[in-house]
Amino acid sequence: MISLSCEGMSSSDAYKLLTGSVVPRPIAWISTQSADKIVNVAPFSSFNYVAHSPPMLAVNITLTDSGGIKDTARNIRDTGEFVVNIATRATLDVMHESSAEYSGDVSEAEELGITLIPGQRVSVPRLAVSPIQMECKLSQIVPLGTGVNTLYIGEVVMFHLSPDIYNGRHIDSVAMDPIARLGGPLYAALGEIFSRKRP
Question: Topology of domain 25-188, per CATH?
Answer without folding.
Answer: Pnp Oxidase; Chain A (2.30.110)
